[in-house]
Amino acid sequence: GAVVSQHPSWVICKSGTSVKIECRSLDFQATTMFWYRQFPKQSLMLMATSNEGSKATYEQGVEKDKFLINHASLTLSTLTVTSAHPEDSSFYICSVWTGEGYTFGSGTRLTVV
Amino acid sequence: KQEVTQIPAALSVPEGENLVLNCSFTDSAIYNLQWFRQDPGKGLTSLLLIQSSQREQTSGRLNASLDKSSGRSTLYIAASQPGDSATYLCAVSGAGSYQLTFGKGTKLSVIP
Would the pLDDT of B106 be above 80? Predict the structure, then answer.
């Protein structure tokens, strides 16, 4: 099956700084990638759908200017958390629909201090 | 709006026991249903995918069933092992959409 690599696996940043998370589809050309967020003891919530070569589609309540998504190629999507605040601390994870199922990255634990 | 519920929230069983995890969803117009396992602080590992036209899927000691009309799915784990300890997530995608809606998961502990 498809392999999705996500980097970094964890990051600690200071409040007010920006953090970039990369999601790479290693063996599958993904025109669409999905970004989820998971708070402790909560289910994964879809944040946005990343579309190669066009603008991302954001879910209701997700600030597009705060969570910048770039899907510049068929194998790479990035999520940048801008001006991070402690309430942005969460587990961020990307996924790809391969046609046979969803494959997820290993996730990124973001802690904003 | 689709809602996915998983019961129980947590389950502890002795090694070797068979067990069933439950998942229900409110909108039966789904494209597929997928079961995942998540280890603490890790990503998701796909276990089984059931298309809306299918009734069940099997992989090794795992068997997942789908009753779309009643909005239910079960994940059956046979002869549980300590290595099965993890959180099991159920997720559905709507017809015409690839977006997944997740339940909160069932945290399984298999006691040696």
Answer: yes
